[in-house]
Design a protein that fits this description.
Elements lengths: L1 H9 L17 H22 L3 E8 L2 E8 L3 H22 L7 H8 L5 E2 L2 H16 L9 H4 L12 H7 L8 E4 L4 E4 L12 H15 L5 E5 L2 E5 L7 E6 L7 E7 L3 E6 L4 E4 L2 E4 L13 E8 L2 H24 L5 E6 L4 E3 L20
Antiparallel strand pairs: 1-2, 2-6, 3-5, 4-5, 6-7, 7-10, 8-9, 10-13, 11-12, 13-14, 14-15
Helix pairs in contact: 3-8, 5-9, 8-9
The structure holds adenosine-5'-diphosphate and magnesium ion.
Magnesium ion (MG) binds next to strand 10 and helix 9.
Length: 366
């Protein structure tokens, strides 16, 4: 069976990532047959290989952080994993909008009044966020929080139409003004708030992978909710990464065998509540200040999780047509978008190769 999967995985290879097993719409019948075997395999594989695979999980940044890697020395493994988790805690303390003493909260309290000096790391991440806003034509916008903070998905709270309209013009990434020379940031008007929820987890995962790399780990995975990055492979095999079915709990729509790459999914099923049959969830259109209704999930594959995290949120907002247009313009990025009707859309790099017509040369004649 593994042979069959590997064959499929090698079906199409990419320079930036390992092999992919993609099961697009045209393969669904085949996948229906294959799915139980894949799931069985996913269940069996870790069992067969657990001996020296070190695994640890913790809840940080409001999400499940998992670290898994190959290390024959259990003591060393534990030390490295601890370093990864303390890095996650450090980033959470710096960037959480829920912690009143985080650097981010300080910005939200003061940056509309005066320019605020910020850490090198915050400066770089804000710069990257603004860059992502530019390339996504404003779909990714950390100032979404100017309206976004009025939602509380756990409590089922949403702003009124009037409250949205009052704050909507505060959403605009151009309100965030960075000063390279002084390493400071200022908000161009009052009421602007920022939130790094669409990029900080990806950044934390990248830092986690850098720690494992420094530890000398050759094969491992760090994930924070929907953001995962893979270092090397899983013992001469790719990691089998499933994309969740956005409407069926515990079901997987696609399995991607991946090595040495980053993968992020944004879904409308992560944080939401339903009122009068309408889903209110945590990915907000900067244009309307409301949850985006045209997408169920967006998955991005690329070189690092800071990029794939921000891009998955961007594609979610953009939807399949504009989203895939953006992906095609970027080097080394692929994507799977599930639209608001449950249809799957793949970037060209993930499409199965077209069957080539037999060349009409004389050597082909019978
Ligand atoms: P998660 O992994 O938390 O599900 P996503 O990568 O899907 O995250 O990003 C969702 C988070 O991004 C939201 O919880 C919010 O903090 C932030 N966000 C929501 N809408 C936008 C937007 N238009 N631009 C940037 N960030 C956003
Ligand atoms: Mg994201």
């Amino acid at each position: 069976m593994w042979y069959l999967l590997s064959r499929l995985a090698n079906h199409r290879r990419f320079s930036n990532v390992g092999g992919f097993l993609v099961v697009p719409a045209c393969y669904t019948a085949f996948f229906r047959l294959l799915k139980p075997v894949v799931i069985l395999l996913m269940l069996l594989l870790p069992v067969a290989a657990t001996a020296d695979w070190y695994k640890q999980e913790e809840s940080i940044m409001g999400t499940r952080i998992a670290v898994e890697f190959w290390d024959e020395d259990k003591h060393h493994a534990k030390q490295c994993a601890e370093q990864v988790f303390s890095e996650m805690r450090r980033i959470d303390a710096l960037m959480s909008p829920y912690k009143p003493d985080s650097e981010l909260s300080r910005l939200n309290q003061q940056a509309a009044d005066e320019a605020i000096q910020i850490s090198e790391e915050m400066f770089i991440l804000l710069k990257k966020s603004l860059r992502m806003s530019q390339i996504s034509n404003g779909a990714f916008d950390i100032t979404f929080s100017s309206v976004g903070h009025l939602y509380d998905y756990r409590e089922g709270i949403k702003p009124s139409e009037q409250e949205i309209q009052q704050s909507l013009e505060r959403i605009n990434f151009r309100h965030v003004v960075l000063d390279e020379k002084n390493h400071s940031v200022r908000f161009a008007r009052s009421g602007v708030r920022i939130d790094l929820g669409g990029i900080a987890k990806g950044y934390a995962v990248d830092n986690g992978i850098a720690i494992l790399d420094k530890c000398g780990i050759k094969g491992g995975l760090v994930s924070a909710g929907g953001d995962s990055r893979i270092l090397g492979d899983r013992g001469n095999r790719p990691w089998m990464m499933g994309i969740r079915h956005p409407r069926k709990k515990d079901a997987v729509v696609v399995v991607l065998p991946l090595s040495n790459t980053a993968l992020s999914t944004s879904g409308d099923y992560e944080r939401f509540f339903i009122e009068d049959g309408k889903r209110y969830h945590h990915i907000i259109s900067p244009k309307t200040g409301k949850s985006v209704a045209t997408t169920w999930s967006a998955t991005v594959i690329g070189p690092d999780t800071t990029t794939t995290d921000a891009l998955s949120t961007s594609l979610f907002v953009l939807g399949p047509a504009k989203g895939l247009q953006l992906v095609e313009s970027l080097e080394g990025i692929d994507a799977v978008i599930i639209d608001g009707q449950g249809r799957m859309h793949y970037s060209s790099g993930l499409m199965p190769p077209k069957t080539e017509a037999a060349p009409a040369g004389p050597e082909m004649r019978q």
